[in-house]
Each structure stands twice: as C-alpha cells, then as structure tokens.
Amino acid sequence: MPSLKGWGLSILLALSGHAFATESSTLFETQLDNGLQVIVKSDHRSPIVVHQVWYRVGANYEPTHLTGISHMLEHMMFKGTENMAPGEFSREVSRLGGRDNAFTSANYTAYFQIVGREHLGRVMEMEADRMANLKLTEEEFQPERNVVIQERLWAIDDRPSARLFEQFKATAFMSSPERNPIIGWMDDIKNYTLEDLQAWYDRWYSPSNATLVVVGDITPDEVLTYAKQTYGQILARDIAPPRSAVEIPQQGQRRIILKDAVPVPSLLIGFHAPSLVTAEDPADVYALAVLSSILGGNDSSLLTQALVRDQQLASSAGSFYRFLGRLGSQFALSAQPNPGVSVAQLEEALLAQITRLQNEPVTQAELNRVLAQAEAAHVFSQDSIQSQANMLGMLVSVGLPASTFDDYVDNLRQVTPEQIQQVANRYLQLDQSTVAILEPSGETNRRPAARPDFGGRSH
Prior knowledge:
Elements: E1 27-31, E2 37-42, E3 48-55, H1 69-76, H2 88-95, E4 99-104, E5 109-116, H3 120-132, H4 138-157, H5 160-172, H6 186-191, H7 194-204, E6 210-216, H8 220-229, E7 254-260, E8 266-273, H9 282-296, H10 302-310, E9 314-321, E10 329-337, H11 343-359, H12 364-380, H13 385-397, H14 408-413, H15 417-427, E11 433-440
GO molecular function, one term: metalloendopeptidase activity
Cofactor: Zn(2+)
GO biological process, one term: proteolysis
C-alpha cells in the first residue's frame, strides 16, 4: 500500500509526492453496460502497461464505528477468491514478470498491476474475479487483522510526528470523516467482524462504483475487448450514495499539545480551505496552491529563507495543501524550532509571514519561480506511465473529469499577486485555525514497533 501523500514542492508535486499530467487528445473514455468507467491512455515508449481498478470508497465513506474498514478490506482482497487461493493473485503477477499492489486513501481504494502488454488480459481476468468473487474467511481474516494492528503501531502509534498529524486532523475536523485516520482507530480495528467486511465489499465493490484505468503500450480497442470479456460479465448493482458529511463551521481557534519522547518540539498550524471538488471558485484553489509553494515549496521558499536562514529560529519550515479531497482540505504550515527558541516564538514568526502576505502582494519574481517549477514538473510527469495512470484514477475517483489538468499550466499562469493576497486574507484567519504542538516528554527509551510482514507486498 504505497502512500499517496499531499501537495508539496510545486503545484504538480502536490499530488502524492509526484507530478502527473494528462493530454485530452490521447485519452479514451467510455462506460460498459454495467456502469464500469473505462479510461485508456496509450503510451508506446515501452512494451508495458499499468492496469488499475479504482473504487470510489475510502476513509471518508466510513461510519464512526468502522473507521479503517476500507483499508482492512484492501488487505483481504489478496486473501483469495472462489477461484484463486490466498496469495495466488500476487504469485501469478510475479510469475508473469510483473508487480502488483494496492492503496487506500480518504477518497478511494485502488489496485494495480504493471505487466508486459501481452499479459494485460490475464491480470484483467484476475482483477475482475476478485471484484465479483472475493472469499472472506475467519481463517484468513484474524491473522490479517493482527497485521493491520501491527501496521498501525508501526506507522502511527510509535511515530510521534504521525500521531501529531493524526491528532491535528481529529481536532481540525469535528463532524467530517476527514477527522478519521485512513488506517482506522485502534479500537475499531480490533472490533471488525467478518460480517462487517462482507457488507462493505457487497456495498461498494461493484462495476458501477469503479473505474478501470489502463496506460501504456496498448490501444483503446484492445482494452475495451478485454474489459468486455472480463469486467463486462459482472452484473451491475445499484450503489447508494455515501452519507452526508458536512463539517460544522469552526468558531474559534483550536489547540492541542502532545508530549512524547522526541528531542525537539514540532509545530503545525492549519486553516480550513476548499479543494477543487468543494470550491465555489476553482481560481481560489489555484491561488492557494501557488501560495503554498511560495511559502514552503522548497529550500528557496519564503519560510525557509525567513525563519531558517535569516532569523535562524527554525531548523526546518514548510507548508502543504492537498486540494483533491472530496470533502475539503487544510492549508497547513509546519516548523521545528532551533535550540533556545520557544514554540511560542516560532508560532509568532510563522504567523508574521502570513500577515505579511495578507498585507503585501507577493513579488512577480516569487510568482515566476513557482510557475517555472510547476511547468518543469509538468514536462517531467510524462516519464512515468504509473504516474499518468495515478492522476487519471485520482481525478475521476473524487468526481472530477479525467481531463481536469489538461490546461492546468494555463490556470496557474492566470494567478496574480493580488489573487494570492486575497486568498491569504479569505482563508488564513486565526479563528479558523488549528494549532498542534509536539513537546518533548523527557523520555528517551521508547522502543518502536517492528515493521509488519506484509506478505511480500510493500505497504
């Protein structure tokens, strides 16, 4: 389950730590009779294909007592079907000379294989099989639940920075499922039943709730032929819409302090912000994305220059803004103080940079720097067929057109210094902020959990 992180170095790098792009002239889109959405992008530079199936279900779809069940089901999808033994799926992909994996996010659950073009039909046959014929048993479920428990201990509970971010989200969001961790809260993980998993699979794993994405050395006609022979044989099912999940308006700043065995403090400040899905005006999202890159995109960014180099208050400082969420986002700043600098001093300095941007437009030179980085990333993005497939799948899974980023560079070029100043004033208000602080507890002997055995798959 490779992690898909948030927006960072530039606008393109803001998506899962990679840069992606699509060209509408090379995209083929259709829908099978059973509702399966099909997207194909041909790229004939190498005789390989990326085959992905994306389900529109993730942590943001889960009720409060079943947090993390989408991720748990992702694990169980490798535990056999009526036609394949547990683990046989991945063994077969390996035998074909390919590799496979899966990942769960707040908005989707996705499964992928990378194989030679001659093996596409076979992996589509296997993926269609587990879409329709997953076999869930207590014998496989109980040990795999323990794997997920260990994964949570390893990835979050024994990592202070991960716990800080988890508690930050749980504080920033009060009613939206955005507050819940993708892996789930530990008590929920320990109380899943096999019936819970079966019901979740039956509700969401249907062709009418899925998107097939294929990118690589293949033609749309070939993909469509295979798709009709495999996925096309699965009966359509009606999918009930997810429950309403509106975040209640924030009424004042929220603060949380954690203590743990860390050598230095950490500071995280976040503000509610729209995503491309929720924004009334998409121009605000592009302006916020540019603002995030100006503040903390890389070593030449404003926060690094001001807090790390000039004032020498911080050892590191940055920002992030994830704007492909189905239910909104957070615009966040982070920093670690230098020895002798208090968290209060660092917080004041961070907020001073926000105030500066609210009072003074950024320079055209600062804006041009970010645009140049984004355009370079746009060109670089074409090198990876998996990156191209990931972008297509993410976009359609949150309800955006596959062609959303066709003209993204043009959208960035339209952002002005005045727009950046406007969104800084509109969204970066203290009474809409959440402050999370990680302080040293004085302990030094915390022993981290061992990395779980994921059965040959890299999580």
